[in-house]
Design a protein that fits this description.
Layout: H1 5-12, E1 18-21, H2 24-34, H3 39-48, H4 67-85, H5 91-103, H6 125-134, H7 144-156, H8 161-172, E2 175-178, E3 192-197, H9 207-210, H10 212-218, H11 233-250, E4 251-262, H12 271-281, E5 285-293, H13 298-302, E6 314-321
Parallel strand pairs: 1-2, 3-4
Antiparallel strand pairs: 4-6, 5-6
Helix pairs in contact: 2-5, 3-5, 3-7, 4-5, 5-7, 11-12
Bound molecules: S-adenosylmethionine.
S-adenosylmethionine (SAM) binds near residues 199 and 207.
Length: about 325
């Protein structure tokens, strides 16, 4: 699932979205966007929430947030977890949770934090202290409910009534799994028309470090998750063999899987070669390999990457088909 773009697009196209990610954050990002409330419902709920009632004060987070902003974040966390424990969260709460988790830190005044890296890469406290010193900045006051409402307005702006209807129809039979992709027993065999997946590329991304602040806000012990950050290619191939075998099981005859991998170790390791070999072993027939040779992204610039030496510079999609009788 990752951040869930694939599922939302699938739902908008009238497909029934099923998703899987081992990180519970994915469900927090996906589920509310399949069931979006109206802006007026969000506004009314934000007015009701007590944004002063925090009962924790993680002082170390003041390197990111103004004290009053941090108080509002902690109060919202208390409200959401309190309702979660009572099983009382509704679609409006889930929406607010999704937007707030995404607004925690970022590089513009639309986020709760002072300037930092883009939102999917939370820096450590030590790195943020350095960023603050370098830019001579201290966290300014950001108003949490106002920013949640502003972002919600933006997100919902181009969602028209037919699309809302389509989402609600598609969401009705949707199914989100928080678990490992190599074991999805709740998904029936021969039931899926198309799998779109992008696994971790060896250990290129540190999902634990990148999500530590979101995990704090959502009360997730990320160190306990068996997130795949696999250094050795052999171990990665073993893990992906199990995933592709599971994908083979759930695919309908004639169903397809688009398996995306990026370039790693400066292009010295070609993951697509491994995926082709493993897919064949799992009983899938390769249809094509699509190569996307990308130039530079905004994100790579934020990382200070302006040459082709670091980061993921190309990616490949391997398309397989499960033939009838295979
Ligand atoms: C390369 S990212 C894909 C991100 C997605 N394409 C996006 O743009 O957000 C890999 C995803 O795999 C998830 N993941 C890691 N280990 C997993 C496992 N064992 N089973 C299922 N998902 C896993 C991570 O949480 C992460 O969301």
């Amino acid at each position: 699932m990752g951040r869930g773009t694939t599922l939302i697009e699938a739902a908008l196209l009238g497909r029934t979205p099923y998703g899987c990610d081992i990180n519970p954050l994915s469900q927090i990002f996906v589920q509310p966007r399949l069931n979006p409330p109206s802006l007026s419902e969000i506004e009314a709920r934000l007015e009701k929430i007590n944004f002063t009632g925090a009962d924790e004060w993680p002082e170390k987070l003041l390197v990111f947030f103004h004290p009053e902003t941090l108080r509002e974040i902690c109060a919202l966390k208390k409200y959401l977890l309190g309702k979660k424990n009572k099983g009382a969260l509704d679609d409006v709460d889930y929406w607010i949770w999704m937007v707030a988790t995404n607004r925690l830190t970022g590089h513009s005044p639309g986020f709760f934090s002072v300037y930092t890296l883009p939102p999917n890469q939370a820096v450590s406290l030590e790195s943020q202290i350095k960023i603050n010193e370098k830019r001579s900045q201290i966290p300014e006051r950001r108003h949490v409910p106002a920013l949640i409402l502003r972002k919600s307005r933006q997100l919902l702006a181009d969602l028209d009534e037919p699309q809302r209807h389509q989402l609600s129809v598609s969401a009705e039979d949707s199914f989100l799994v928080t678990g490992s992709a190599d074991q999805t027993p709740k998904i029936s065999s021969d039931s899926i028309a198309l799998v779109v997946t992008s696994p971790p590329f060896l250990d290129v991304v540190d999902y634990e470090q990148d999500n530590w602040l979101r995990a704090w806000f959502c009360d997730i012990d990320i160190s306990k998750l068996a997130l795949w950050q696999i250094k050795s290619l052999r171990d990665w191939e073993t893990g992906m063999m199990n995933v592709l075998s599971e994908i083979h099981r759930v695919l309908k005859p004639g169903g397809r899987v688009a398996f995306e991998v990026g370039e790693v170790r400066n292009g010295k390791i070609k993951l697509e070669t491994s995926v082709l070999k493993i897919g064949l072993k799992a009983g899938l027939r390769p249809v094509l390999v699509l190569i996307n040779d990308q130039i530079f992204t905004k994100t790579s610039n934020c990382w200070g990457v302006d040459n082709l030496k670091k980061g993921t510079n190309t990616n490949r999609i391997i398309l397989f088909q499960k033939d009838a009788g295979c």
